[in-house]
Amino acid sequence: MAEAYIVGAVRTPVGRKQGGLSGVHPADLAAHTLRALVDRTGVDPSAVEDVIMGCVMQFGPQSMDIARTAWLSAGLPEDVAGVTIDRQCGSSQQAVHFAAQGVLSGTQDLVVAAGVESMSVVPMGSHVTTALEKGLPSPFGDGWAERYGRQEISQFRGAELMCEKWDLSREELERFAVESHRRALEAVAEGRFRDQIVPVAGVENDEGPRADTTPEKLATLKTLREGGRITAATSSQISDGSGALLIASERAVREYGLTPRARVVTLTLTGDDPVYMLTAPIPATRKALARAGLSVDDIDVFEVNEAFAPVPLAWLREIGADPERVNPNGGAIALGHPLGATGAILMTKLLHELERTGGWYGLQTMCEGGGQANVTVIERL
User: Fold this and answer.
1) Do domains 4-123+238-256 and 265-380 have the same CATH topology?
2) Most buried among 27, 74, 208, 373, using CB within 10 Å?
3) Domain boundaries along the sequence of the chain
4) Beta strand pairing status for 262-271 and 372-380?
5) Which candidate in 89, 127, 163, 181 is catalytic?
6) What is the similarity comment for this entry (predicted)?
7) Model confidence pLDDT, tens digit, residues 16-75
8) Would you say the C-alpha torsion 248, 249, 254, 255 has a positive or negative sign?
9) How far apart, in whole angstroms, are the C-alpha atoms of residue 214 and residue 210?
10) CATH class of the domain defined by 265-380
11) CATH 3.40.50.720 applies to domain 4-123+238-256
12) Is residue 55 annotated as part of the catalytic site, yes or no?
């Protein structure tokens, strides 16, 4: 049976909005990561068969197939192709899936899975608002309206709907946010991210974690929606960043003298209610565990993207995982969520945490626009 191995995983620091990475062109940001991946693995870049890169706002400086632009900007061989994909927040986790599937199918041996997003340069939703300003239709046509009605579809509404469905209080959300920052700050202080981060533009550490985060301070913030429970502090941070992984077959490992660091165990996708939008990680995790023949107790580390605090909190209630194993080094509330890059960044964090702690199995999942979720299970080698 064919296997797909992760042989390299690197990321940039995650920069705050208009922070230290905001002056770097997105293609150059991704190029920096790609070059580091090649250098650290020692792979012959001409042997790479495709570069699959997640990016959500494929607009302006992130348009024109940034995967190809970034590879060439890194000074890497012209004969390697690249493709840019959009599965919303899960775009670069999907890049990992596509790369692994190419290897598992036997049609490819070496594939780069990557992601990039500069939300400082290309604001979230700018491609949609620009189209609307030009008089173009919204992304939701008549067929959608017939099925779901002319109601608001947004991640912010979805987060509030989750709070209502799972009866999550504002205080519970804020306790979770404070803990995310505490864990992230502890990880930074102990140097847990040092080996996975490629410094860029003078930035060496993630810029998001805040030492002054307290329940008392968060309680003073306004909610994002009148009468709601979600605030900016219980939402993921707007950020800039990039991540990249190298996926290899057994043949490539032998031929190029690569060292497998993890084996891809299973790859699953699930859709759920697109109005709630953020709930799909729950059924997706159940599906992935069943397919892998594993129980929740078999997983040593979980990365559940903190798009909003109710996402991992509802997931925890339904899945029953040990909270200490979930986002042990903090999540997007503290560290940031550069949309199309986050999937690759989380997988890089997951792999390094398994190596640091000696754990065997890791599971990553993310909520995504349209009510979708990817789940990837890996086994450390």
Assistant:
1) yes
2) 373
3) 4-123+238-256, 265-380
4) antiparallel
5) 89
6) Belongs to the thiolase-like superfamily. Thiolase family.
7) 999 999 999 999 999 999 999 999 999 999 999 999 999 999 999 999 999 999 999 999
8) negative
9) 10
10) alpha beta
11) no
12) no
